[in-house]
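Blackboard transcription, Thursday session:
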Amino acid sequence: MSVSFTVAPLRACRDILKELRAVKGPGYQRSPAYRYVMDQFRHNRITSEKLCRSQQDLLHRASSYLCLLQSTRLHLSLHAEYHGEGSTREKGLGDVARMVGLALPTQPGGKGWE
Amino acid sequence: STERKKFYQDVSISQGEGGVFEINLDRRKLKTPGGKLFTVPNEALATAVATEWDVQRDTLKFYTMHMTTLCNTALDNPTQRNKDQMIEASLKYLETDTICYRVEEPPGLVQLQKNEWDPVMDWIEKRYNVVIGSSSNIMGPTIPEETKDTFRQHLASYNFWALTGLEYVITQLKSVILSFGLIDQHLTVEKAVQLSRLEEEFQIHHWGNVEWAHEYDLQELRSRTAAGTLFVHLSSESATMKRKLLQDLEFPLPRKPTIKTPLLSKHSHH
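(Written on the board underneath:)
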């Protein structure tokens, strides 16, 4: 029981720093977030006894922040892929339909509004 | 428009009048859309906001800057509502709470809703000593007045900023119950989002999906929910104040497993 509690905060800290490095690049250690996260984890000393309330709070917050960083990064890259250049917005309707395995019905005589 | 060219190099935070924190973009101080000086009550919130601005590249993607958006909402209060109005708006979602509405078919989904949502329902009824219940009829369950009163009281214990965040989480998850579970740390963001999207996930497993659209929706909901949750927790108390109090209280005492965090109320007003 105590082993999992001591591993989890270190893991959370490490994963957050990984995310910061992914979004910020080489200068990530100079970012306000890096300093703050390191500070938080240093000040919350992990004892071998039952995880106290403040440590549970820290873990939940760290987990939320990690989720925020990861999901924002993924949302952004998906947005770029599907809303940016060469994306569905620039493709014709026919191409988009084919992407999802459909085909537009043919309409002899053309559509009324063309 | 949702994007703008990045116009600064360095992002930093600084402490201003009355101990609030400000965000500096190069030498300019960030302002709200309403023209106010952008200020937050503690360093943790300031850091989270600063990071959003710090990681932007050539163009500013405002639709990913949820912490900033939430602070702007709290500062500008564009809908001009007070706490009571926000509480009633939040409670209204209880009547159409996602986990209260059960399907009658297909059997797979019926069972999934039971397995995944019943435990959360049990948890909240026990935790708050209320009756809520779920229903498969079109009108949904009838929520007893006592239940609403209990939640009303609980919501009132949050300060205006935290309430802004909490209402946001509720609108994202479409569930008061899941939001409470999240804020009370019974659920993680990922779990709360999964529970909120249970029916979609079920349909996807059965019928397949347009993968990118599903993933896009999932990541977007996660990022908004995570931001809202963090916003509530960081607004509920001054982070540095709490740490100082804990250090004073815990360390002089002998270490016993039974010691819990004493005296501090969960949501102090700032």
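Lecturer's comment: Chain A is about 65% helix and 0% strand.
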